[in-house]
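Researcher: I'm comparing several assemblies side by side, and this is the next one on my list. It has 1206 residues spread over four chains. Same procedure as the others: predict the full complex and return the structure.
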Amino acid sequence: MFNDLPLWPARASTGAGNVDALYVFLVLLASFMSLAIFIMVALFAIRYRRQRNQQAEQIEGSTALEITWSVIPLGIFMVIFAWGAVIYFQERTPPQGATEIYVVAKQWMWKIEHPEGQREINELHVPVGRDIKLIMTSQDVIHSFYIPAFRIKQDVLPGRYTTEWFRATKPGVYHLFCAEYCGTQHSGMIGQIVVMEPAQYQAWLAGGTTFGSLAANGQSIFQQLGCPTCHRMDTQGRGPNLTGVFGKPIQLEDGRIVVADENYVRESILSPSAKVVSGFKPIMPVFQGLVSEEQLNALVAYIKSLSPEPSGAAGTPSLRPPGTQTQEQKE
Amino acid sequence: MATAAAITAEREHYLNKEYGIRSWLLTTDHKRIALLYLMSITFFFFVGGFFALLIRLELLTPAGDLVQADTYNKLFTMHGMVMVFFFLIPSIPAVLGNFLVPMMIGAKDLAFPRINLLSWYLYIIAGIMMLHCIVTGGADTGWTFYTPFSTAFANTKVIEAGLSIFVAGFSSILTGLNFVVTIHRMRAPGMTWSRLPLFIWAHYATSIIQLLGTPVLAITLVLVVFERLFGLGIFDPTRGGDPLLFQHLFWFYSHPAVYIMILPSMGVVAEIVPCFSRKRIFGYKAVALSSIAIAVFGFLVWAHHMFVAGISLYSAMIFSILSYLVAVPSAIKVFNWTATMYKGSISFSTPMLYAFGFIGLFTMGGLTGLFLAALGIDVHVTDTYFVVAHFHYIMVGGAVMGYLGGMHFWWPKISGRMYPEAWGRLAALIVFLGFNLTFFPQFILGYLGMPRRYWQYPAEFQVLNVMSTAGSTILAVGYVLPMVYFLWSMRYGKIADENPWGAAGLEWKTASPPPTFNFEEIPEVTWEAYNYDEIPEPVEVSLER
Amino acid sequence: MSDSPVVVEQHGPELRHHFVTAEQQREASSLGMWLFLATEIMFFGGMFCAYLVYRLNYFNEFAAGSRSLSLKWGTINTIVLICSSLTVALGVRAAQMGKRKLLVILLLLTIVFGFAFLGIKGIEWYDKYKEHHIPGASFNADDLVHDYPQIHIDQAHEQIYFSLYFAMTGLHALHMIIGVGIFVFLTYYSWKGLYTPEYHTPIEIGGLYWHFVDIIWIYLYPLLYLIDRKPLG
Amino acid sequence: MSEHILSSKMYYGIWIALMILTVVTAAVSTIDLGPFNTVVALLIASSKALLVILFFMHVKYTSEKLTKMVIISSIFWLLILLFLSLSDYSTRHLGHA
């Protein structure tokens, strides 16, 4: 019976259980509170109904009661807030070393690119037990990447990256929905998340047509666009040396310090004059409209791969030689 | 209307003082304007309701087989726009508020009668624009107008819809302005702030929101229209604009707008419950101040609509904690209404049944709001049917229940006739059952992950959708019934005397229907609000048809 | 002023039926206007919010756009508006004292100042049109890139500055036009002698509106014209 | 009633003050004060606005508290809009987007 009418979707990620726990707590709390109110209303309505020649007794109110039923709920609310905030914080903080998969949304499909170079449309294959970070952007309007079985959802915006992450726990095929209304075929912008055992996943990786790894693609685009002319691998270039830049704080010309994350790299390609690195001139041409979202993703992946940080490669910890970068671009 | 007046022709009142179209279209009498509003919002309610039924019918099957995808998108867009801007926001303030605010405080009219008429005309102009927009193709952006879809991608009548809502917004602003000035300046001698009916407090709070929130929506829509026309780039990411800025500005109004819809209903319930419990309201001050608190805190929480939209983590935390703040005054109200019934003398007339319904459904709507304010859960359920169910519990379960309760409660005052009590109770029951059957399954659907605004959906969601559609047909019957018997009662209803419920409040101290200037002479108030110990109980309303 | 019954009777026509006293009516109108101005603050507030967000993000483009505006015309217009506010304030005073001729003259002066402001605004907009600084298909900020090589300008972001410039000054100008319209009516009725020391509420609330439009400009002036005028180093 | 006829001298005085402040703000904007350019410009604009509100709009002389409340609350609401929006924009670069 309850197989036909489930109360929650499959629970297939490490985070799903946490969300459900809070949900069940809230369902119990809400049921208790509504029942309490319903029973009180019903009880008073019956006990004090007029047919019993009930005479009303005038009662002014009670400050003590008012304070009680303001403060106690507020206390409970704060507990819910804290609990919800902790879950949210975890949902929005991808662990170090997660595999990074790029997602490009457009009306009305999901284009997905694995770091190894596999490309998929409306399907995402992932192995069980690995942290996956999705780096997402949209070509047109706002979409939202929603996987009910993982209890995660994140709007996918044009013009910048948003991210979400998960670690799948149960092999299976799960829904992928677009959850932000995006036009005619909004309800058709759905797909599948295929969670596989690691061995199967390796087989799947080996089986598909690959286009070369994302970072390698990025490198060839980097060459084609002539970027190395200025962004040289030494300190003599007209643009900063990009080695080891990703993920580091960078001093800008106006004194601000920003972290060179995906959105910074993206902005620096599309609108280079916005945040110029200290010590360099704003001479880089604007690439807005000249590179596609996919090429941009590849470029970001390439620049990331120039940092020895283990963020690009899937979960393999690397021994990073300390203190070897971040000096060059400050000159 | 004319016949009802003919029977009570011996006495002049606002309905029979003048006749003819002119006397209505050029009236500055707040009571007549209220009736103009009543007719127009009822029309739009059924327009919006018609769209709702089509939506539910489409969702009967998982495949999109009744209407085209584009048509479906237009249906939910127009349903939202019509219901929010042309029914819910004007509903209680413009009809019951217009009729009652001056009467309850002992004034002859609102402070600016001509502006009051102007705001009805603005509403009508906006309504005609909206109808024109609908019949010439409609818009498909969702009522939320999210950019850049609305500005750069939708190829439907977005500009016309936007301008229509812009004009409707000014109608709403002027109504709010009129109420605030009236409540401040027009109170009868002795009508101090602590003697004001809670209906007035609720409308005061509502008006504050209308005054300070609506302009932000208006300017945002202007920017959307300009962006569409001239490509300004303010909300366009390809030109460096930020689509989230639109969402911030939009929700700055549209979240408090929910309180524009629900606060007046709370005011209605605060009148009905004491009357049918024969008791002074429990905790008058707490209920009055909680209305103001809702109006103020309501402005601090808007970005809880945007937890997954790409706002910063820290901002999300701030808005989440503030959202819980606004839940407290709502809880206070529910507790106080319930406590009012304690040791009362309770009768089950139709308005009271609606008040019961309101308390129940609002409680559930409010409590599910706690789910949505909890960040971790919101990520999963936002933009799903959970949200749809939640806000329909507030707006339909809450606001519309309150509206219908108020209409029954004050119908004798408005028309001078009683509605048929048995039918009234039956309709209340049908609405309650139909509503729950329609919207409760949607909570489960939402947690299961069915996104909102879906024209077709995976087959596993069908059972709950069928339940919901079944409920909606029952709900429709429940809504048509009152309209039928209200019309019927204008000719055949029992004649109502001045105060059929034995209710407190100045509006019950004048004739039904009231004379044009409400009172033969301006009353002087020497008693506290809800002095039910001093008012004799009426004879129990019989169930005769 | 007194609210004796005599006043009420003398000025029956102005006292609308639903008010008890003339004072009540006057206070209602005044409160109504103040509330309306509060809504106006929020109306402009939406744009101030957009302005703030983009100015923080695209300061360079805002600075360059601001430099391209005419400091001369902007300042003159500010002075024109301040003068008009003075004539309005004196006009209200004239009405309070029942000096009909003075009132009419001051109101006419206000209208003249209003037209002067709009005319200057028109000149500025026309300059912007010639410079292709009007957002849309023909927008082009190459001249700014050329003029201010020290500032890094992204043309798309520059357009956002000018979008906000035109939206804000345009909305302000619309308010000015409405204000001039109101003052034409007020002048006509003043000339007819409708306003007396006892009844001149329309002059007062019309004046409130005018001062408010002035205040908006008092903020628009530094926010749009004076973002970054310091010598380029 | 709050009808308080001010002397015309007072109005001229305010007018002169407004003119001076206008010239000052234009002049100061050409001097490099770093981040204080904006602060000074806004302070001057606010003092001008205050002068207009208090004197030209007679708020200083009205016995009506309500007018002041309307002004203060509308400014308060504007600040809500600006500050809570900024709570998002000013913390986005901190990551976790």
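Model: For your comparison table: The mean pLDDT of chain B is 93.
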